[in-house]
Amino acid sequence: MISAENITKTKTFTDVNFSFEKGIMCILSPADKDKNELLTAISGQKALCSGSLTGEAVCGYVAKGAPLPSNLKVSEYIGFVMRAKGVPFFADELKEKLGDVYGRSVSSLSNLMRYKTAVIAELIYSPDVLLLEAPSFALTFEESEDIFAFIEELSAETPVIFTSERVSEARTYADHTLVLLNGKQLFFGSSENMIAETEKEGALTVKVKGDGEKVKAIFEKYGAEILQSVRKGTYKCVLSVSESEKTEIRNAVAANGLALLEMKSEGDDLKQLVTVLTEKENALRMAYEDEKAEAEIKTLNQLKDQLTFTHEEDNVYETDDDGDGDEDKNVSDEAPRKALSEEEKEKKRRALFGHSYESYDDDDDGESTLFSSKN
User: Which pTM was predicted?
Assistant: First the structure.
């Protein structure tokens, strides 16, 4: 089981959740940073800020474009990986997958064979999961189909997580898809459910390169709109066909020596998918906030009903006892005012200076001379 719970990495992604046991999962996003940072976090190359990943999985990792050392032979690179991982021997079945490539120089390999070689090298130490950055990068349409057929074969024994910005790859080859936008998770689920979010298959767009007459001969019978690109010999054909007819078109293109550059349905448009998922998320968030506000108002109303308030209608200080319409003061509650004698006033004045009354009786007549005319 490969799973993540609320994993977060500052300034990269937040609260990402997924779980799958076997097969292939695609991390789909228009930005490389979203996809690759998450992949390196899963591999353990970069620490998480919060959240948890299941277990201590051993991960095989192949970077975008498979940057192998070009100064080595494939056999030398395999030997280097074996020593680094402490693997005593190279399995015959893996050597068979390489074929004659095993004795060749890395620099002589095509983009397709270089990526395959890098994947096989990671399989030497039997990882729990394979993490692949953009397997179809710099590959033609036919080469992309080849590399994913290879990945599907491997996934029968080893779960695979790959990154892409092509919805068509997620829907065709992945069992589960995780969609990210600016580090925020928009969707995780089966690839079928992801495509269902767009609610349509849409027209098919096919880009091919080759002889114009052959292009017309293949696509005109499907009622395709054929547009010639500014690049010489490149054509864009827009049509509506069934899944079985898509296979027919691929076979016809290959049989006529044309290069198939792209085959994409309208429902495979990443921008459209992200827009639909974003709108859905916003709608769910607004519905949640409305429901929360409604619940808070209901709670306040319940509290209000439970509380009782009493008010004093009469003020004891403002009464009209004689019924003349004027308010009468309740003088009984007022403290009576008392006039102070000169002696008491003198004592208060002395207290301000911290002296007793008697200390300034210079002539012993019982009167203070502090404020008298004598001083």
Answer: 0.69
